[in-house]
Amino acid sequence: MSALMTEAVLRGLVLYLLILLTMGVAALYFARATMPRPPVGRFVWTDIWIMVVALVAMPFAYMHMPTGVIVTIFGVVVFTVSQLVLSPVLGGRNAALAAALLCAADVAAYFAQWPTAVLVVNDLTMILLTVGVANMWAQTGMRAAHVAGLAGALTVYDALATGVSSLTADFVSRVEGLPFAPILATGYGPVSSLAGLGDCLMLAVWPLVAAKAYGRTAGWWAAVVEGTLLLGLTLAVLLTDLEFVPLLLPLGPLIVGQHLFWRRRERARALRAGPGRVELAQALEDLPADARSWVALHEGAVVATGSAPGTARRAARQAGVTAVPVVRGTGR
Amino acid sequence: MFGTAARQMGYAWSMLAGRRFRVKDVTALVEDLRATLEEFGSPGEGAGEMLTAPDPEMQRDLASRRLRRTVRLTARDTPYYRRWFEQHGIDPGSITLESLASIEPTTKAALRDLPAAFVADGARPAVLAQTTGTTGVPTMVWFSRYEIDLMSGMSALALMLAGGLRSEHVWANCITSRSIAQILIERAATMTGAAFVHVGLVDPRATLDRLAVPLHVPGKRPQMTHLNTTASYLAALVQEAERGGWDAKDFGLEEIHSGGEVLTDALKERAEAMFGARVLDSYSMTEIAPVGGQVCGQGHLHLPTDQGHVEVLDPETFQPAAPGAHGVLVVTPYTTYRDTTLLLRYVTGDIVKVLPESEQPACELAAVPATSRVLGRLSPSSVTTRDVLDLLQAEREIPLPTRYVLEETRSGPVLHAVTGNASRALVSRLEERAADLKLPLRGIELVDDPAALPGLCRVRADLREHTFEHFTATESARTGKSALRAAAEAVAEMGVR
Description:
A: 5 strands, B: alpha/beta, 14 helices
């Protein structure tokens, strides 16, 4: 195996581990920390459509923007999200300081022309950004259907932008090596090995939302499926001469499929659980008429009577029934 | 989230600019907040700031702008004030916070005599609300759909953010159906997702039965959780519940909102013990809606300044009342919230005491201006409704709701009160306590029958609605031999298990 090949394999495997690490940190953060959220509002479908429009439009816009403007926009986003994600851990002031230092380090490394430092610091910011945004989405009420919808829309976009056209490739070549470049990478240039921020976000957010919506098993399955897919793609890239793989092309349908599977399972479980409010059904059984026209029932048995609904409830309490009984008339 | 943020910005802009709100945005914001609470259980950080601007300097600036706009529009658009400004040669545009006192206070009689003169020329009246009229003929106040929708939306926001009302709650209303509060709370409570029951001011035995009845409907608590009523009707409920052998465990109440009348500490404690629920005291009035106040844990009445300008004036001279002195609440609701019946310096008739400088609030509402709690009306001998109620409601022998007449004589006021069992010992205790409280009473006369009082004693609990229910002797007496045995007999008789 040539030295170049060995380096490519190494970089590919490190990138794979970095993505797994990002997913793990996002999950740990989700379990332990609560991000500040706005006073009012939760994730709704409108947010998905706004994000899809922005995601589709922004690469085109970036291609025509001066580099300084692109870096500034990304820098503001990185600083804001980093301090938001760090504030539950470090406290507001320390989080702002840490985020500022991180951003300053990224910029300083770039101007000092230390490509390795830029790579490392930038990866750190991207991990923070992914953890932050994935948690922000999951913690502000993003539902499994929202992730599936977003994944579906991005699958189409990724297929066109990465698979069919050179938009992604052009965008990556424009931003790689710049501070705050929205890519998680283990190398730039001819031995580049990288994943886009959008891919990382979808990989990180789905296990969180799946766990929240359908339980821990669904969350673990999401992580395992994604880990396996990533490994397969990493090997495919290393063993073939593929340059850019549209990750969302297989990932999007997998997310949609998992969502449909778990949703169907939940509905089946709800059906098996039988009808609710059994106590009301029991209370509909025929009762002999009584001079006092209201009865209180608890666990299907008459526990007290009264001349009015409230007094029957009170008589049930006086009879030692602590739960709220069902009270019904006897037709008199 | 993006849509909510845009609506919040629109809401904040209206608050800051003092312009009309976009009702559609307020309604959508209520829906957003409801969805947020259903998703997360609580609002996010800084939610409280949605209800009021926290910075006092900013509040003063806003109040100044809102007041100037209110005076200008009211003087331009209402026949009553247009004539008044013309007659007095005052330019409405020159009125500021500092010169507001040059406008003559508006009496209740002026509004009652010709309500239409206070309705703006371009108004679109939709609802005619009435006051309870316990002091005479009810006063009519017109409201537009904008006002109803806006005030309902803002009440819903306040109920969710400050009141903790959630969609699983069930709100029971026992106030007069003619007031604006009835319309607003019905809409506001249902906007929050909570259920609403208009129980009405019916026989207290019927109300207790309603409050105790299990509901068993999806998404709601098994019994009514909130009760909104007046102090005198609450007193009637407490009296009937104690007499009828009811227990706090019979009810699912969590909060009781009392307003519209003087609520004493004695009644509050008795109601809390009876119903096992927190009793909250608030202040509102149909004419000055949406201006209202909340009593804090330290017993101050806090009146937010963002919905209207509130003054506390000497009841005789209408000059600002001095610290520690009695004063009447005089309110100017802002035209940001009101566009139909417009009022400047409306004399509510409700007496409060200006807090002495040594008694500045340090409570959870400290940032909101405060006075004493509402003291009711002030007699010529400077005895307030609260003075008398504090005296009488401390005695459990005196039936609720408390009925009394303060008869002014040359040698001082004589207190006539209704009691079920007048005794010399009770009179002595009352006289002793009156002396301790330094009430300038010449004497106390107890009577058995309200008809024997030397005058009328009207309370809001008297605004009774009728039902066709028939109540017999109290149920507890009939099951009292042994509740458990009675229940066992019922089971055996019916053969149901």
